[in-house]
Amino acid sequence: MSAKTKSPILWVPTSYFAMGFPFVVLNMVCVLMFKGLGIEDAKIALWTSVIMFPWTLKFLWSPFLEMFRTKKYFVVATQIISGVGFGLVAMALNLPHFFAVCIAVLAVVAFSGATHDIALDGLYMAELSTSDQAKYIGWQGAFYNVAKLVATGLLVSLAGMLIESFRSDGASETDAGRQAWMIIMLICCSSMILLGLLHTRTLPSGGAAAARITSAKEGMNELIVVIRDFFRKKYIWWYILFIILYRLGEGFVMKIVPLFLKADRASGGLGLSELEIGWFYGFFGAAAFVLGSLLAGYYISHFGLKKTLYSLVCIFNLPFLVYTFLAYVQPESVWLIGGGIVLEYFGYGFGFVGLTLFMMQQVAPGEHQMAHYAFASGIMNLSVMVTGAVSGFISDAVGYRMFFTVVMLATIPIFVMTRFIPFTHPEK
User: Fold this and answer.
1) pTM surpassing 0.85?
2) Do the beta carbons of residue 321 and residue 408 sit within 8 Å?
3) Are 123 and 271 within one domain?
4) Same domain, residue pair 237 and 294
């Protein structure tokens, strides 16, 4: 069924919530879960990072999804698989070697989640015109971030309340944590399965498979063709550089900002408590991100991506000045600090949709649209991972003030490049 008979508002918000939910649970919630269950920091950091790699490498199997079934089939199937995976994690928490078992299961959930992203983005591009893609891109980004709010805000808070409740009933620290996190994982399980069942009715098909492979050799040959065609696209090296530079500043600050907010003032930080950081990030920041995403979608839909791209780059990158200001001034007012964080999150939500839409409309179009979008988003994720990995070393070496100054200098190339970036495909 086409998007004309199934309004995007019926499936875009819920399906992109289902896209963000497993990613946030694996990347943030499980870190807190393992920490509460007594696992060492080094093991948590290592293994929860390793299992996130499918989101970077998803382009390797994206061509195969264009050869079997429909895009809707893969979206629904992976939502249910992810739900079952969270259920297995809940049961594994009682095992003697629960950490190893949980990591193995979560690796499957990560592969399922990355596959879900490929299929859903492909469905979005196949079902919506370029005008509607721009119109609903804000809803896409907003509900992806709502998943973050639900997972890191609601579920983590609920876990804390359950732990306190079990403790008051006489359970030990470890047993209380284990019981609480079992309930949280079961909630994750039921949420993803229910979303999968809902989407059997609300999702359009996304189009039938383009072809079918009959052997592994044929599949590998097709993958080679997909990769070759990607690098033969007009202006592709300019587009790859644009993708990398667009989020360069964000990649650097992503890991450092929470540390800067938490660090004491003698170390150059702001000395905020976990509660204050949670409120600014988990509630006000998330609300600002959602608002920015929604407004940006309608802004681009009205004026077009080509006319708005430079303003989107400015709105995305200039708010990083907030942290430079906070690092140099170190204000005492939590309202001033919170206002700066909200401004940065609004700019992040508003500007990020520009890159997403650029990859959909200028990089992905062609015979292998779904696979090529997955390739582009994989490059984008790799860029953020690499800059995030080195950001701590730079921050430690130069201090917070100089670090944020360097970040702002690193954003200059994207302002210049956006002025000259060519558009291959006309806007419809």
Assistant:
1) no
2) yes
3) no
4) yes
Q: Work out how many domains the chain is built from and give that number.
A: 2
Tokens (6 digits) for 199: 């989407």
* pLDDT digits 0-9 by tens, 24-70: 898 778 877 887 788 876 577 677 777 888 887 887 777 677 666 78
The pair of structure tokens assigned to 419 is 């002025």
Task: Mark whether 168 and 242 lie in a shared domain.
Answer: no
Q: How many CB atoms are located within 10 Å of the residue 279 CB?
A: 17
Rounded to 5 degrees, what are φ and ψ at 398? -115, -10
Residue 218 in domain: no
User: Alpha helix (H) ranges present in 203-247?
Assistant: 216-231, 236-246
Beta bridge partners of 70: 208
Same domain, 198 and 258: no
CA distance linking residue 207 with residue 213, whole number of Å: 17
Is 105 in contact with 92 (CB distance < 8 Å)? yes
Final residue in a domain of this structure, among 212, 247, 264: 212
In a domain, residue 221? The reply is: no
Same domain, 313 and 370: yes
13 CB-contact burial (10 Å; exposed 0-12 / middle 13-18 / buried 19+): middle
Q: Is 273 exposed, middle or buried (0-12, 13-18, 19+ CB in 10 A)?
A: exposed
| Residue 368 forms part of a structural domain | yes
Using one digit for the tens of pLDDT, what is the confidence trace for 303-354? 888 999 999 999 998 888 889 999 998 888 888 988 888 888 898 888 988 8
Closest CA to 321 of 427, 203, 410: 410
- Adjacent-strand bridge partners of 208: 70
Q: Tell me the residue range of the domain where 139 lies.
A: 1-212
Reduced to 3 states (helix: H, G, I; strand: E, B; else coil), residue 208 is strand
**Are residues 254 and 196 part of one domain?**
no
Task: Say if residue 200 is in the same domain as residue 266.
Answer: no
Distance CA 1, CA 360 (A): 22
